[in-house]
Amino acid sequence: MTKPQQNPMRSVHRAFQVLSELELAQRPLRLTDLAQRTGLHIATTQRLVNVLTEHGYASRHSNGYTAGPAALSTAHAFAMTSPVRLIARPILEELANATGLTASLYVRVQNSRVLIDRVEGGRRPQYSLPIGERLPLYPGAAGKVFLACDPETDLDATAADLAPVTLADGTVLEHSAVLADLQDVRTRGFAISVNERQFDTTATAAPIVDSAGRILGSLGLSGATAELRDVESSALPSDVRRAAQAIGSRVPPAN
Amino acid sequence: MTKPQQNPMRSVHRAFQVLSELELAQRPLRLTDLAQRTGLHIATTQRLVNVLTEHGYASRHSNGYTAGPAALSTAHAFAMTSPVRLIARPILEELANATGLTASLYVRVQNSRVLIDRVEGGRRPQYSLPIGERLPLYPGAAGKVFLACDPETDLDATAADLAPVTLADGTVLEHSAVLADLQDVRTRGFAISVNERQFDTTATAAPIVDSAGRILGSLGLSGATAELRDVESSALPSDVRRAAQAIGSRVPPAN
DNA sequence: AAGGTTAATATCATAGAATGAGAATGGCGG
DNA sequence: CCGCCATTCTCATTCTATGATATTAACCTT
């Protein structure tokens, strides 16, 4: 998606561009497809996927290339070493136990968020392991937080980029609605979403900020909309906000 | 570890070299450390790790760099699309249910194996999620299979590279012992390990081979040594072998 | 706090790697 | 058996990647 068409480290950037397409496709891609999607010359694409494959980040199959197993081991290393994740873990458990809801930890990667860790709250068992899932920044409480709570972000421009957005309940948000939403999140320091990204799911989220003011992640708490009719007036948002602050204060600042 | 110091795609190779060190270290590394470990110039290392960070495959913290969250989402994509994994899943469950043991699926990445999927058998609950763990090829049943069952591999040279090896029970294997072991695995078509990599763990494993004879992975079944005193004479090895063949026969050949 | 030390980033000329056009090979399906 | 599509190879040109050095920033010691 991102096309860093600048000079420096071009081939490396392109390698990750290819990898990103493999990840995005969620199905095997033929070399030609890859070349088309990335906009690179076939020969170039070929050399890049060969390197990716050699290192295990891509795999070749009968019907094309997919992401490779090396990503799994790198992900494992990340999970074992990420300070935010390690610090947040017990707090996720605490939140999930206390509320019976699902506690989730996201970090931002470029223009999306990635689910880093999750503790399911109670009843309904979890069938799929969505950890590692990549989601958009806008619809969804935990995503909005990244946009709204980053002082660097120009909310107006961002809203313009995003709009119009269609939510899971069918609502369509225009520029002004998105902007108002983001501004609201920014001033309140937390976000609430009702049936935004997933129908019948309500969530509240708050930013995890280090002492230097950088956003390290987003802490979300979600459950069935039916069970959360009174989120706005409940203590949940401030609970989440407090928990997020607790995490942030324990993570040493990046520099 | 691998140093592809050839000309083509040098910078991309180096990028993965850096990433590999980050993964291996399992702790934050400072830029200088990274440069030393990879043998690259500091300036070069810096540019590479910046690109990695920009794409989310590395993260910067107060005390150095670690692997980054993008690896998680790529890993997720891999898990959702890998044919071997998808095909093997039900068979892992079946094996684990039938035997009460732990069924594991590994694939090879360069000179190591990565745990792709696992179904725990019965009693003892699993505390850590070791999926993604990177292990050596030699000690351990599931690893040996990759070396022994690949007709391309020169067992004698491989044994020479490996020896001497110290097992978890303290045994030290010299060249001849390793060679004999590998040859045995090759002729029998499955491997057995007792207290080799983990003390008090016994395992048996067989290669997953596609119709073209390429090794796609390794299927292992493991449990406490005490419960598996009679593996050699039991039906387990051939059960595993049969299951591995079943998987292999359902995966379309790579080309 | 201030000075000394180490780490991270910027600058720049040169070498050589990366690129893309096209040709050649290899597989697959008809 | 033949033609088609995907992949791999070849090669000259250009621009990117490199590494020595200089600069800035962070850190720790006292």
Verbal overview:
The structure is a homodimer of 255-residue chains. With 255 residues, chain A is of the alpha+beta class. Chain A has two domains: 8-70, Arc Repressor Mutant, subunit A; 82-250, GAF domain (Beta-Lactamase, 2-Layer Sandwich). The first copy, chain A, is built from nine helices and ten strands. Chain A has helices spanning 10-25, 31-38, 42-54, 70-81, 83-99, 141-148, 155-162, 175-188, 236-250; strands at residues 58-61, 64-67, 102-109, 112-119, 134-136, 165-166, 172-173, 191-194, 201-209, 215-224. In chain A, the strands form three sheets. Chain A has a six-stranded antiparallel β-sheet, sandwiched between helices. In chain A, strands 1-2 form a two-stranded antiparallel sheet. Chain A has a two-stranded antiparallel sheet with strand order 6-7. In chain A, helix 1 packs across helix 3 (42-54) and helix 5 runs antiparallel to helix 9 (236-250). The longest helix of chain A has 17 residues, at 83-99. The interface between A and B is large, with 63 and 64 residues. Chain A binds a DNA duplex (30 and 30 nucleotides) through residues 7-11, 30-32, 41-44, 46-47, 50, 255.
What percentage of amino acids of chain A are in beta strands? 15-25%
CATH C-level name of the largest domain in chain A = Alpha Beta
Secondary structure class of chain A reads: alpha+beta
CATH fold assignment of the largest domain in chain A? Beta-Lactamase
From the 3D coordinates, which CATH architecture of the largest domain in chain A would you assign? 2-Layer Sandwich
- The side-by-side strand order for the widest beta sheet of chain A comes to 5-4-3-10-9-8
Cα end-to-end separation of chain A: 29 Å
Level of helix content of chain A? 40-55%
